[in-house]
Amino acid sequence: MIHLDHLTIFVGEVARSRKWYTENLDLKLEFDIPSRNVAALQDSGGFTLFVEQSSEMERAPSCALTFRVADVEAKCRELENRGVHLEARPQKLFWGYGAELRDPDGYLVRLWDELSMREKG
Predict the structure, then answer these.
(1) Residues 6+ apart with CB under 8 A from 10
(2) Sequence spans of domains, the chain
(3) DSSP tally for the chain: helices H, then strands E
(4) Per-residue DSSP letters for 50-89?
(5) pLDDT digits (tens, 9 = 90+) for 93-111
(6) Which helix (H) or strand (E) holds 93?
(7) What is the pLDDT of residues 5-61, one digit of tens each?
(8) What are φ and ψ of residue 74, in 5° steps?
(9) Strand pairing class (28-33; 86-93)
């Protein structure tokens, strides 16, 4: 059996990324390794996103992160109330119904929920 366990993204500032993902997407800090400029952030399903501070060349956004949320429209209202800019408000996109935004390092973050995807996707 193969099971994707974690993913590492390279960021400009670990503390900034840790704060953004914990405050905006409710990931929990699993552990920090300050001497290595790494933080492990875990979602509610046990998947770990490592944010690792690295040089500018290594941290060019190279993937899109897709998160399933309970209610994409409610989550987007919450984010906008916090001042987070959405690149695409909840709508039908090429990949289905959801929203898109960027993290502080420019990674594309996609949000969706099962009900909206079924009904509006």
Answers:
(1) 52, 53, 54, 58, 59, 105
(2) 1-59, 61-121
(3) 3, 8
(4) EEEE--TTTTS---EEEEE-S-HHHHHHHHHHTTPPEEEE
(5) 999 999 999 999 999 999 9
(6) strand 86-93
(7) 899 999 999 999 999 999 999 999 999 999 999 999 999 999 999 999 987 656 677
(8) -65, -40
(9) unpaired
Residue type, 96: G
- CATH no. of 61-121: 3.10.180.10
CATH class of the 1-59 domain in this structure: alpha beta
For residue 79, report the phi and psi dihedrals to the nearest 5 degrees.
-65, -45
| pLDDT at site 59 | 63
Whole-structure pTM value: 0.90
And the tokens for 111? 């949000």
